[in-house]
Every structure is written in C-alpha cells, then in structure tokens.
Amino acid sequence: MLELIRLADTLKHVHQLPPPRGIESAEFDPFTGLARGIAAAPDLDIEDRRWLHGYLAELQGRWSGLPEGRSSCVIRGATRIDGVLTGEDDCATPLNSEPTTLGPPEWDLVPIAMAYWSFGWLNTTQYVTFCQTYGQDVARCGRFYLLRDIQEFAMTIAAIQPATRHPTQATRRLACIRGDIGPRPWPGWLPINR
Predict the structure, then answer these.
(1) Regarding the domain delimited by 2-18+30-178, which CATH topology (the fold level of the hierarchy) does it fall under?
(2) Model pTM score
(3) Among 46, 51, 150, 182, which residue's beta carbon has the most beta carbons within 10 A?
C-alpha cells in the first residue's frame, strides 16, 4: 500500500511542476510506434493485422475529439503499463524511467485505474487509497475511456512484438480489446517486461 501512496504523491507533484523553460516540447502523441508495432509483429494473420490497423485509426479519430479535461502539464508520458511491478501485497510500482513530456495529466493516472478496473491487479482499498492520495479518481473523468482504450491497445501491441514474444498474452489481449472475452475485469492479463 505504501508504494501506491508514494506513486500517487509523486504523480501529484510531477503534475504540479511548471513546464520546462527554454525547451520546446513536442506535442504528446500516445500513438508513437503503434503502427510500426503492428507492421513488425511476425505472427499476426491478415485479419488480425487489418483489425488492429482499423482499431488504431478509430482510436486516432477519437483522440482528435479528446473530451475536455485538465490542462496539459508535465507527465511521465509512458505509453504502456507493462513496466509496472506488482508485489506480494499487489502494490504497483513503475519499473521504467521513460522521459517526461507535456500532456494530459489523466494519462499518468489511467494505468492505476486499469490495474483495478481492467485487470483486477489492485483491490478496492488499494485503488481508493491511491485516488484519495492523488486527489482524483480518473475513472470519473470524461477522458478516461479513450485514454484507457489507447493504453490497453498499446499493451496489446507490446505483447506481439518480437522483443517480448508473449504469444499467450498477445492472443488473450487481442481477444479482450476486440470484445471476445466479455466485460472487464479481464482475467489473465499479466505484466510483461521487455
């Protein structure tokens, strides 16, 4: 539980940082590398590849109409949560140190909401504690569903990459985001590390 509290405190602090001065930041793009990831996946059949490209285009279209939310700020900007360690007490701790960028602060909160709502990696007490410590439940904001869908898509693409080669996870994740498995929480999603 302590790790979740630390993570919430850290993200709250990061999201309050002023934008870096003198550095021009690129516009946050949650889709960076996803099309390349689909193209590089060695084991996708034509139908799966076509579906993934179509779903990516749908997500990009939804992104262009991103609902109102908090102003852009400094964010961690990680595009996937497979680099999250869950220990014996189910605490989630980021393993990667990806560079920060400017973007919607909700982006950084969605992985924790997904750990609870989508995958069942956290229990209710843990999730509520995180939300109370941070000061917001991202699942109640209008941006949540789109940001969640993008991150679940990115996690699916991560599982089909030659560098990770997790065929069981790739099959399960693709079936979930396609709607073949049923409602969340989806059983069987496991963190993968590159």
Answers:
(1) Aminoglycoside 3'-phosphotransferase; Chain: A, domain 2 (3.90.1200)
(2) 0.85
(3) 150
